[in-house]
Records
---
Amino acid sequence: MTIKKLLIANRGEIAVRINRAARELGIATVQVYSKADKDSLAVKLADESVEIGPPQASKSYLDQAKILAAAESTGADAIHPGYGFLAENAEFAAAVEVAGLIFVGPTAHAIRLMGDKVAAREAAASAGVPTVPGSEGRLESPEAAFALVEKTGFPVMIKAAAGGGGRGIRIARTVEEFHHLMPQAQAEALAAFGDGGLYVEKLVEGARHIEVQVLGDGKDVIHCFERECSLQRRRQKVWEEAPSPSLTPAVREQLCASAVALAKAVNYRGAGTLEYLYDDRTGAFYFLEMNTRIQVEHPVTEMVTGIDLVREMIRIAGGEPLSIRQDEVRVSGHSIEVRINAEDPAKSFMPNPGTVSALAIPSSDGVRFDSMLYAGYTVPPFYDSLLGKLIVHAEDRASAIRRLEGALAELTIEGLATTKPLHQALARDPDVRAGRFHTAWLEPWLASHAKAAPSVP
Amino acid sequence: MATQQIFSPLPGIFYRKPAPDKPVYKADGDVITEDDTIGLIEVMKSFNEVKAGAAGKILRFLAENEEAVMAGQPIAEIDV
């Protein structure tokens, strides 16, 4: 191991997780922190800590110069970016290497390539990985668009090339609708954006979110199977599991092989995740994007495979080859992670920073709580609301859900409202228990439950 | 005429503008009504409007744009 001292350029539960992983590898840690995180658990755990600025992330955790200066002054030889903040910033990854330090993650080139939607889609296509069928670029005429939908089939989404954030999207379910909507969409796009260019993309309704964990050492790539994260609110995952309750063994094999093919095509180094839409009625999957970092929900993969992903990515960054061969990666049992956020589900998920007056963490076989909390800790209002992740593992999915219910009942966080009641309600729900859900399932469920019992989601 | 303060209802980051490239909601000397928005507080990545809560004239802002504020901290002084 060439890394002797690791600087952690992040905060919250992931900074705690990385501190622990480094310690287990015999690596000293430097925790950088904003003024608001002076009393954080990560700072308490680290061997050294350096204040890098005021609470605002733009002036602390996103300030590349301050982070590099902290690495220099402490003699750190590597930087772990965690997730969010600078984790997928290619300029930062390059700057770390220019400074003669190790970036715990992929090359700046791989980050840049996968961060560009069009380039990532092209890389996927050339690696033989299916993407959502649609126009490769803008379509100027209704005739060109029609030629395309004859190939993709219906329903399709018609989007303004110059639009964004869902504006100007129309859905056509039949040829008649398509002919009716296309000129309208074009006229509207021209009026609204001064640009009549359109994109057409197949609409995958009721799709699930499935993602494949990969590990690469720059030469070889292995996968650690999939996670399903279809339960989402406002595109934020709230409940994640491994393995997916909806994949057949044949589809799982194809999906994981496609992820390895794409990661190999970019000589991927470190831990990465390839996200897909999955249509469980047809068995078709479509590559969405690659996240070139460790993900929040990585623990469910660790629980079912026994691989410590954070330790592994640090080892790889230190120059070691993959320590596991593909045929050694096996899935055992089922794992579920639920996100415990400082949000009040009874009040439209209003953020709820405050002081943890009492804390009781469940501890039994197959239960893990990755968190930044301790009793007496004041959760600052300046960052995201994730407090921790309750993770369970059991021999099968039904047992994992029962174990989750028990662990949620034991988990006590007093002093601030959290999303715990949401997860208790989800764990009781017959559709969740049967694994019957997709990415657009949770929001209507929340709306109907809010009506039925305003105080209990 | 009496001087009154407007307090931050939440802890977080105080913004005087609706977006970085937009003008400030209100400037020193502006006349305001009770329902006027005078700024935003970002709490855990969600944005909440701060209402004046009283009609009058803004004497001065006590919190700067992008300043970290505590709940109950005075952010502006008004003449009512």
Note: The CA atoms of residues 156 and 203 of chain A lie 5 Å apart.
---
Amino acid sequence: MGKPDDIQQSEKQTEAIRFIQHTSDHSLLLQCLIKIQEAYLHIPADTVELLQQQLGLSYADINVVVEFYSFLSFEKSGDYQILISNNITDQFLGNQTLFKKLNSRLADVNVSIEYTSCTGLCDQGPAILVNGWAINRVDDERIEHIAELIEQRLPVDQWPSHFFEKEDNILRRDIQLSVECQPGAAIKTAIQQGREQSLETLEAAGLKGRGGAGFSTASKWRFCAQTEAGQRYVVCNADEGEPGTFKDRVLLNQYAHDVFEGMTVCAAVIGATRGLVYLRGEYRYLLPQLQQVLQQRRDDGLLGAHILGEDLAFDIDIHLGAGAYICGEESALIESLEGKRGIPRIRPPFPVVSGYLGQPTVVNNVESFWSVSRIMLLGADWFAGVGTDASKGTRLLSISGDCRDPGIYEFPFGVTVTEILAACGGEQTQAIQMAGAAGTTVLARDFERRMCHEDLATGGSFMVIGRQRNLLDMLANFSNFFTHESCGFCTPCRVGTQLIDDIICCFKQGQGSTSELQQLNDIAKLMQQNSFCGLGSSAPTAFLNALQQSPELFSAHGPLDDNPQFDLTAAVAEYEQLVATLSGDLR
Amino acid sequence: MKGKIKIATTSLAGCFGCHMSILDIDERLIDLVDIVEFNRSPLTDIKHASQCDIGIIEGAVANSENVEVLREFRRECKTLVAIGACALNGGVPAMRNHYSLTECIKESYLDGIGLDNPMVPNDPDLPKLLDKVHPVQEVVKIDYFLPGCPPPADMIWKMLTDLLAGREPVFTPQQIYYD
């Protein structure tokens, strides 16, 4: 006792316990567990007992949730837990060297160092999380500084603030980023227009969900509004887990007002009184400032019982995630909001009919809500004036990888890959990966393809792969990612992702064979057709792309028929030496 | 002879028991030669396999000549089938893997009881022994494996007829039941 971090930690523990003692709603299980994990750096057995009593749950109910989420664990792995972001762009920036350096520098301290999935800092990597706090651009100097702080046993939230500063890197503004919205203005318009008129505006704007699936936002809201129910919910999906996507982080950092404004407009249109933001655990550091914005909006009468003095009641809570990519899938996200494991639901019923707590729920991406606030203010024509026939407006791209200026770029739909690369300074580019690990690989010969729902759909991730890279490294990174992130519920995905990973590893080590290529193809197709949710059906896309577009990638990495591990020269060396020495002597 | 399916067979470090089992298909061999042509095989005395449809490998890989033959089969045969315990697992030849090659050679040629004129053979024509005996799939890619010591004639017949008909070989549980 007496060490600064111990006191700090014990205060947090008291606070976490107090929180649980005042909770009886079992849908808050995950939130309770996250608080415990933060305070104790693991989930101690006695807190599980307390949770059982308070929430009326069995041990098994709690156990499965802890086992499911990456950031929760029953065992304490160290006084400091360092997670190194392992997106392919972090790999490009040398996260494997970083892993080694951290390990050797911190060998004598009680620290656990592991890899984690993309932490959304691809434009300023390599990035790490220390006890859940994200740190960007970890270079030698920072490693040294971090090691010193850890040796002094200073709690992470007392580390110098410059460690946690993030860059927004907004590098191209089009129609949406170039306007500022006055808080409350969009809500006012929505109230004036009324429900039907507001929906028509959105419909005319042609706004499609920015999460990647591209479903019409107006239709989604309409379906939800039409479902008879006592209660409706607005959910903002801020579980930005797709590798290479970070635009939601920037929006939440700089445009939180507009996002909450969009949610409030949605509430007014569908008749909801409660909204939830599902913020990925990796963005936990944004939580205090987001709560501040919410409080300010309550103070300004933009949230609460009588918004803008009208008969409109709405408030927003923020729930944290705990490191599970699958929770970006809307039905898994709702399960997670209810405090359970993030396992996708059978659809239909869709969330607009039966979502959070079985009530009609609109789940939209952060960017969708952000765009709503602008469309309400500036009108449908302003938005639909750019883009293509089926993809209206502009969208934000998170650009990372081998380019001069990684960051956030707003582009109208219909822009070609070549144009995007020119803007971000991507030269000597071998390929780009559109829409993240689950997205499409576009090789240089197809760079005239366009970003839009008709051609290259995207959730906002755009990773540039230079000529110096081996595409097989990227595939291995993705296969590893999916193996880790498959929720394990359905066999095609749980087993398929592992089998694909094994095959890709074989090729990476130069041990692949023709029959394995056939297997890869078969498994990928089986996963596409038989997986339970979008994770499993989209996971094999990059591998199929590679098989179809660049089969030479595989033949170059496996002599296909002979096993290269078998070395004839080495295998006969002992015999040759024997014959040379023994028979020579005897003659 | 054009149009016939070409089959090559060989025995590496094996006892020819699997080949005996091939011969055990008895009179069906006559049906077989109507549709297949034997290339390199102990049955034909052809020295090198070339452009075959099916290659059948018996025995494990114990020396440099085995490696050369096996690689030739892989190169020349579209479908390669490993048959028998030695090919699949190393079998009896692999029992020497418990000892070092030096121990084995000393015991056999220098220190063994009752040896007359002990010496290590060193004729350059002799294949070089590998330090360890390997199952065939550790050296080349194998398409099908037929277990058994030896695999029964009916099993070999079923495998051949399925492959000749262009089908994936499938066995009933009875056909691969050994106890």
Note: The first strand of chain B starts at residue 5 and ends at 11.
